[in-house]
Amino acid sequence: MTTRTRFAPSPTGFLHIGGARTALFCYLFARRTGGKYLLRVEDTDRERSTAEAVEVIFEGLRWMGLNPDEPPVFQARNAPRHLEVAHQLLREGKAYRCHCSKDEIDQLREQQKTQGLKPRYDGRCRSRSAPVAEGRESVIRLKTPLAGAVAWEDVIQGPVRIENNQLDDLILVRSDGTPTYHLAVVTDDHDMGITHIVRGEDHLNNTPRQIHIIEAMGWTRPVYAHMPLLHGMDGAKLSKRHGAVSVLAYRDAGFLPQAVNNYLARLGWSFGEQEIFTMAELERHFDIAQVGRSAAIFDQAKLEWVNGHHIRATAVQDLVPPLLEQLRRKGIAEPDPAYVAALVPTLQERARTLAEMADKALFYFVAPTAYDDKAVGKHLTAPVLEPFADLVQRLDSLEGWNEALLEATFQATIATHGVKMGKLAQPVRVALTGSDVSPGVYEVLARLGRSESLTRLERCLAFFRRRVAE
Ligand code: GLU
């Protein structure tokens, strides 16, 4: 049997990071078992489902590399098929028309509440003999077994059992003739040949109801895996209150998709001590049966740490496009990709996100307009003025411009003046970047190029001279 999973988002907003984790688990399960991962857009809520929301979900999934193995299915288009199933159940006596008015149902509910009972439909129309007034609206309900229980072995939750007397007769078709959510989900899962349903724990209560439809139709039950939900560091369900929850917000904040996938897979699942996984490793090792039952706590700092690892492990040419985007966001209109590629290795070691990398790269594009006060106070001191001025002079008369030549020039200058390398390098940093934290000075000088470097050094030298003279 080929396994088939599906991710079934409702396109009513954005792709939530929790939804993305569900998609990832479906995808990884399919990959590990040599099966197929499908996508179904649950767009039956016509008012809330918008084309933009669908596009945002597709974009988020594309970004994460979770592209379905078959074209996506749009649930709303299958409504005639859903109704066909309901009518089959009706014909076979497994479903019935319920003519209860809203008032009648409300009354029943009130009665049950006063008796301290859980409000549920009592199935009175199963055997309604009284004739129904012409034109009276009806719904189609499933005949839920009156006794017994629904039980299944959940891959993550373990054995689950719900007594049937806890469930009422589920509505399959509403009075306006539209199929309900459960009918649509079950029918589509069957028609798509889904063998494994991997979804959030919030759907656990839906499962017994959906199983009843499956049984009534005589279909094969899929295997269920209900994943624990994502929680914030405070233990509450992850929501906007905790910061970014949309997947694309993570892209925009400078995270790499491989890092987000790595982090989300590792949340609630472990593989020895290994923290960092490539997508290929996840596809090989991820085992949904090993996912724990407790809530997964989303820790932004850990995600940044994982992202930092992936930034270091990613080839320069793959970092360039997202870094260009980050630079544009920071106002660098048309960063040259070749120039950016040359900068990446100087910044790759320390950045936790590409947004941070872009911040640290800004000086490569824009000369400092001011120098950091503290750095000036610390490094632009009188005894360094002469060596610094000499260095600028020597650099100015250099024949070439590369890291080896630059280093030799620095070495010669410190030898002449008997100063430590740090004493000379720090004012150079200030001159080039405005602050005393930056990649190595030779790297920076080499990338800025001769003319830009000398302009910045000379401007700083003038400032330095004025400062010492004062
Ligand atoms: N459309 C549902 C949701 O967005 C998922 C349904 C399912 O996975 O069965 O939560």
Explain how this protein is built.
The chain is mostly helical and about 475 residues long. The chain is elongated. The longest helix is centred in the C-terminal third of the chain and has 20 residues, at about 450-470. The protein has 19 helices and twelve strands. Strands 1-2-3 form a three-stranded parallel beta sheet. The protein has a three-stranded antiparallel beta sheet with strand order 4-5-8. The protein folds into four domains: about 5-70 and about 230-300, 3-Layer(aba) Sandwich (Rossmann fold); about 75-225, Rossmann fold; about 315-365; about 375-470, Arc Repressor Mutant, subunit A (Orthogonal Bundle), CATH 1.10.10.350. The protein starts with a strand and ends with a helix. The structure holds glutamic acid.
